[in-house]
Amino acid sequence: MSQKAALALVLLLVALPAQAASSAWFETEGGRIRLVTTGVPAADGTLRAALQIDVAPGWKTYWRDPGDAGVPPQITFPAASGVTTAEIGFPVPQRFDDGASHWAGYEWPIALALTLHAAPGKTTGTLEADVFMGLCQSICVPVQAQLILDPHHNADDMFDRASVNAAFDSLPAKASASFGVTAARIEGDMLIVETAAPSRDRLTLFLASNGGFEFGVPKHEKGGARFAVPLLARPKDAATSASVAYTLSSGDAAVDGAFTLP
Q1: What torsion, rounded to 10 degrees, do the Cα atoms 211, 213, 218, 219 define?
Q2: Does residue 197 share a domain with residue 167?
Q3: Could you tell me if 154 and 182 lie in one domain?
Q4: Three-class DSSP category at 257
Q5: Pairing mode, if any, of strands 140-149 and 83-89?
Q6: Do 115 and 208 have their domain in common?
Q7: C-beta of residue 123 within 8 angstroms of C-beta of residue 152
Q8: Could you give the number of structural domains in the chain?
Q9: 27 with 129, same domain?
């Protein structure tokens, strides 16, 4: 992947009206995407959904932290939709290194789990979602798409519900005292992260930059549970604190969590 070629091309996709509680597939170079929901929102305004990203062979897409020049998946909703917030859940990514840069992402079809919130009791008609994400092969192609569906139409479709449930089932568990980050501290130009895990088999840490902090690739101390992470950038104000999201995987198990710096 050539990071210098990032943002070289933008594709604008416009959706046609959907015929179910999911949008139609939208094709673009490097893959296709669609939005699937479980149907009518609950009484408290919560609606579960999934953004399906069907990555074409030889292409990749990004995790929540895309490295130095990538485009992470983002989804927003116009005010008229009634959706006030959209929480995105990511499955465990893979780390990529092309020799010039490093980043976390996926080279296989995935589904991002979405928890949408609207005002309690508010029912939406047509739901429009604006998606911005990146697909990469030899260059990175940012994709902008508008996905449209009616969550009330065919709201009990068992295939849509199964797709959404599968997206949530693929998420890491919540971190705990026995599996997760137990401490984090800055030592010079390094961030030291202490972890706990039921096994140290293939122990891997992914960090999402936030609040002015930027991180290099976490280096796992052989045989231990500690990581040394290069600090590539930090806030100008040393007193500035930030919440850092992370995914910690060990073998086939993984957890999501967050810790605060400094």
Answers
A1: -150
A2: no
A3: no
A4: strand
A5: unpaired
A6: no
A7: yes
A8: 2
A9: yes
Task: Give pLDDT, residue 6.
Answer: 35
Residue 167 has pLDDT above 80, yes or no: yes
Contact 108, 96 (CB under 8 A): no
End residue of a domain, out of 141, 171, 201 = 171
Q: What is the pLDDT of residues 176-212, one digit of tens each?
A: 999 999 999 999 999 999 999 999 889 999 999 888 8
Peptide bond into 57 cis (omega under 30): no
Q: Mark whether 36 and 159 lie in a shared domain.
A: yes
Do residues 247 and 223 touch, judged by C-beta distance below 8 A?
no
233 in the same domain as 163: no
Domain interval for residue 226: 174-261
Rounded to two decimals, what is the model's pTM? 0.88
In order, the DSSP letters of 187-248 are ETTEEEEEEE-S--TT-EEEEE--TT-EE---EEPTTSSEEEEEEEE--SSTT--EEEEEEE
Burial grade of 198 (CB within 10 A; 0-12, 13-18, 19 or more): exposed
Which of 171, 186, 207 represents a domain boundary (last residue)?
Answer: 171
Total residues found in the chain within this entry: 262
Which run of H or E residues covers position 1?
none
67-115 per-position pLDDT tens digit: 877 889 999 998 888 898 999 999 999 999 877 778 999 999 999 999 9
